[in-house]
Write a structure and sequence with these properties.
Layout: H1 2-14, H2 18-27, H3 33-47, H4 50-74, H5 79-82, H6 104-119, H7 124-140, H8 146-166
């Protein structure tokens, strides 16, 4: 954990930008619960299949149960509290109240990117880059350590791939 604290101190000093400070708090919400709910609803509307709705809700529930189980089991304090950094994002409900590890935004961003990659494999790299960027915004904003977003991304990807193996979600 010491290397992460040192890393967070180091990057807070050199990669801060007034432009990013304005843009990234908005971009980071693409990995939020609201984004996932909108993703589920739009996927259901697009396919007009109840099975898609049920499976997406089940996947979201499984991801959330594992995510929050880990968060409250590990109880890792967020870096902005440990390093006494000011957060660059305005606090919303649960935004900075729950524990840090793993990053929920990374879990959900990679869950959506993995599903989109299955549905549109031609754009797989783009979806995964966007998910990675969403995860990085959590570090930039001082809300997560690097390992929080790495583990969150791996969880989002792996759980979705495993779910997709047992409960295929086709988008046709």
């Amino acid at each position: 954990m010491d290397w992460e604290l040192n890393f967070m101190r180091w990057v807070d000093g050199w990669w801060s930008s007034p432009i990013l400070d304005q843009i990234l708090p908005w971009f980071t919400y693409l990995g939020s619960h609201i984004a996932v709910v909108l993703f589920i609803i739009s996927s259901w509307i697009s396919t007009r299949q109840r099975m898609v709705l049920r499976r997406l809700l089940l996947l979201y529930g499984i991801q959330s149960a594992i995510l929050y189980g880990l968060k409250f089991l590990v109880q890792r304090q967020r870096p902005l509290f440990v390093l006494e950094m000011a957060s660059k994002v305005s606090p919303g409900p649960g935004e900075i109240l729950d524990p840090s590890f793993p990053s929920g935004h990374a879990v959900y961003a990679f869950m959506m990117a993995t599903l989109l990659s299955v549905w549109s494999p031609k754009y797989r790299v783009i979806f995964l880059i966007v998910a990675g960027f969403i995860a990085w915004t959590r570090i930039y904003l001082g809300l997560h350590y690097p390992t929080d977003v790495i583990v969150g991304g791996l969880l989002g990807y792996a759980i979705t791939k495993l779910f997709q193996h047992y409960f295929p979600l086709s988008y046709t």
